[in-house]
Amino acid sequence: MKTKLFTLLSAACVTLGLTGCFNKPEISYASLKVLAPTGAPAVAMSFLARHNNLETTSNPAQGLIPMFKTNTYDIIVAPTQGGLTQIIKQQANYKIAATITFGNFYIVATGKDDNNTLDEGDSVLIFQENDIPGKVFKYVYGDAGLDITAVAAVSDTKLVIENGGTLKIDETTTKEFDYIYTAQPVVSATNSTIFINVQDAFKEKSGGKTITQASIFVNNNADKEKVNALLADAKNYIEGAIQDPSALKSSIEFIGSTAEQQDKFGVPGAMAMKVTTANNGFSLGYKEAKGIKDEIQSFVNLLTNNALGELSEEVFY
Prior knowledge:
By secondary structure, the protein is α/β, with parallel strands linked by helices. The protein has 13 helices and 13 strands. 45% of the residues are buried.
């Protein structure tokens, strides 16, 4: 009953724009500057649409990671290992506070594989080869003898799915794929059927470990009271939205047209609701980083070959 009541209250707050429903009115965090990548991380932070203090970027490598060095933002939502690398290797003035997405990677079949089994020699299209998506794929399937081709962005995988699994290499060359490694919301947007849930495959390969994909990083100079209020609202919002995904739709649609929603969040509100309704397809959640230190340590070790060493208490908010 308590969960149902909270869900109803959360939906009412979002629908009616009652920002005070989440945190005490005297603790306003609208002045905090927040940056997040489009897609699942931005969707998780979409309650900030009403505060107009969330900026997003579709190119984390160029538009987000360098921002750790500038102190421009009070909060940056970033790939977990990317943010920790900035803190540990570049002495960025931030700490990790919470992980909010836990992997939204999936493999879809194009119907071109005769035996309908992902095995040696099969052609697979992947994306972001040198970032979390590509590294996760290679960790799980790097020894499977697959014929792998990489594209830059998940949006490129969407185009190939829509083209029946065919990629135009140049004016005279095309390549056909048996499988395409992609992410939500592309799976839902293309009405594709999930062939493999890579989160499950990762867990099996790693002996039960979790993909701690994107996390909230807090600037050491940010107003702690405001940050704590924002973090509390993020937790309430994310957990409420998992139970009632219409909250995501209401928040994202607040900013304007479908095109504006797509530009800001990488997904319109209706699609964000659809993906989350389908077994929490974005893998949204909220876990305080200190509480899952071992999971974060294991994940970044896998992705960086232990390059970050043992995570000290000083990197945690």
